[in-house]
Amino acid sequence: MEKKIHALTLALESKFPLPILFLIPLLILFTLSRYRAKRYPPGPRGWPVIGNMGMMGQLTHVGLAHLAKRYGGIFHLRLGSLHMIVVSSPDTAREVLQAHDSIFSNRPATAAIRYLTYDRADMAFAHYGPFWRQMRKLCVMKLFSRKRAESWASVRDEVDVMVRAVAASSGSPVNVGELVFGLTRDVIYRAAFGSGSKEGPEEFIKILQEFSKLFGAFNVADFIPWLGWVDLQGLNGRLVRARDSLDRFIDIIIDEHMRKEKPDGPVDSDMVDELLAFYSDGDQGKVSECEELKSSIKLTKNNIKAIIMV
């Protein structure tokens, strides 16, 4: 029996090279996985590995409308290892957005978003659940309430500075775009960090711009995760440097706010002051379903930084 098996092995090796013998089991597994794969709505046939990524330039609202005419009101696209379902018909959209909204409420997070938001420690990309609901309550009641907006004297101060700058340039050309950009920069900075911070708004805007670029950058690893270690685009290094810059910048500001003595009378507090009222020195933000907001949510420094940046 052993001689027959040895003879068969020699015959196979003589007729088929070793790489082909290695690929045959992989082809069988691939075929079985395709056979057992979940059934998806109809859609354009994709290539192996990349799927329909070659069509990404066409996936605008116009391009998706053309595909809907061909494949129907609900169709399927595969972008690398990601499966995307496109809904175009009003009835199906109503089912997704109203009847089953809680199922589809989570936002997908790219590798850049997960890293720069300290693994979804913010509100924009947090998973739908108790933490997200309490974070939303915090933003509505504290950070972006009407009363809060009306109490920001810093905004009125910055507008007054811009008006005086325009008045001083009477009779001379004024670069309105530059003035509005400077006003927006200073308002955002003072609303977030206050006027007493020693750090500069120019550095903060540079960090903010790099975050914005990385959030929107195309990353092969988002679609083909097993290629993430290659980092052909150099994004991993940029992500590390961007978050390190944010940590150095905001940690100093948070520490300054924590050392600052609280005045007895009313004060024009900034966003960091409001968030530090819920600060807890722990590894993760914790939440419970209590009525009182301050007792129901505890924020870490990572939560505070992620909320400010996103």
TrEMBL record:
Gene3D superfamilies: Cytochrome P450. Coiled coil: none annotated. Its main location: membrane. It is a single-pass membrane protein. One of its GO terms (molecular function) is monooxygenase activity. The chain crosses the membrane at residues 16-35. It holds the Pfam family p450. Keywords: Membrane, Oxidoreductase, Transmembrane, Transmembrane helix. This is Cytochrome P450 84A1.
